[in-house]
Structure formats: C-alpha cells, structure tokens
C-alpha cells in the first residue's frame, strides 16, 4: 500500500471541505475520493452549462446542479447547495473540518475565508487563460508573484492588517487570451496539486 495502513487510516478519517467544484474543485474532489478520503463535503450553488464542458467533471449534465451530480458520481460525499457570499462566510462553522480547500471564484469571499480559517486553508488561485502546467507553484500567499488574483488578495489582506500565512496553489504564467478561456490541463492540474497538498498535510 502506497501510504501504509496507519497513514491510509488518517486519510480515511480526514474531514475535508471543498468550496467550489468547478474546473479546479472537481478534480481535487476526484483525487481525494480516489485516494481514500471518506469524509468530503462539497459546497457550490451553480448548475452546469455548455461552457463548463471543457474542464469540469460531471459537466455532461448540462442544466443540472453541480453538487447533486457529483454526489451521484461520488457516493458518500456530503453536499451543501449554497451561495458563497460574505454573509455565508460570516455565519458558517469551519471548525469541524480538518482542512478547507478554497476553489471559489469570488475574490471577496476568498479573502474572508482566509481570514476565518487560514490555519486549515489551501487556496487555489487563478488557473484560467493558461496552458503550461510546468508553471504551477505551491507557496505562501505572501510569496506569490505574477498572478493578478494573488496580488489583489495580498493587497486586501494588507489593508485589513492581516499578516497570517496560508498555502496557495497558483501559476504566474502570463494570460494567453484576453477573453474568457480555460484549459483543463491547467485547471485539472491545479486541482490535483491541491489534493496532493491536502494529502501531505494530513500525513505529516
């Protein structure tokens, strides 16, 4: 067994929350589920549309709820169909979870989640408009570079006089298009990298 019996038991017992199950979050879910994590909760409020089909697991179910579709694909996971906004972050209890994966899209929500549960947070940053997986990095939010979303988050945290540390997965690759566009090679790889970081955190 790759992890050994004791470590595999740790994986099975870990309690993980995934915020957002799109191009990044759905691959993190798939990786954790296949690695043996049994207590996974996913949170999303979206339904699949045609534009999701190039990069999101479950997206053949156009028009259907993401969390409901993924619950059918990954039996045993817990689901929360909920809009992620500032009020939700303020009221939600993150305490029961060992680790929180932030794969949400909204910058303000990401910032508030970081403030509330930075000790157990692994945050995915921008992965759209890129196609080079070799550029993906894992580091502290304060050591990020070349990523506009990361800079925005750093700046807002500084304004709020927040100086705590948390881990992010990001890519400094320059945008390859001006309009919207995503490559599953990168969005999926970011999700898988997040999964790897979760596993390492659980086992050490």
Model description:
With 204 residues, the chain is α/β, with parallel strands linked by helices. It has one domain (5-203): Rossmann fold (3-Layer(aba) Sandwich), CATH 3.40.50. The protein has helices at residues 5-13, 25-34, 66-73, 86-91, 107-117, 148-159, 184-203, and strands at 15-19, 39-44, 78-81, 99-102, 121-124, 137-140, 167-170. It has a 7-stranded mixed sheet, with helices on both faces. The longest helix is centred in the C-terminal third of the chain and has 20 residues, at 184-203. The two termini are 17 Å apart. The mean pLDDT is 94.
Side-by-side strand order of the widest sheet: 3-2-1-4-5-7-6
Helix residue percentage: 25-40%
CATH architecture: 3-Layer(aba) Sandwich
Instruction: Assign the structural class, choosing from mainly alpha, mainly beta, alpha/beta, alpha+beta, or little secondary structure.
Output: alpha/beta
Oligomer: single chain
Q: What structural keywords apply?
A:
204 residues; Rossmann fold; seven-stranded mixed β-sheet
Please render the helix and strand layout as text.
Layout: H1 5-13, E1 15-19, H2 25-34, E2 39-44, H3 66-73, E3 78-81, H4 86-91, E4 99-102, H5 107-117, E5 121-124, E6 137-140, H6 148-159, E7 167-170, H7 184-203
Parallel strand pairs: 1-2, 1-4, 2-3, 4-5, 5-7
Antiparallel strand pairs: 6-7
Helix pairs in contact: 2-7, 5-6
Give a brief description.
By secondary structure, the protein is α/β, with parallel strands linked by helices. It has 7 helices and 7 strands; from the N terminus they run αβαβαβαβαββαβα.
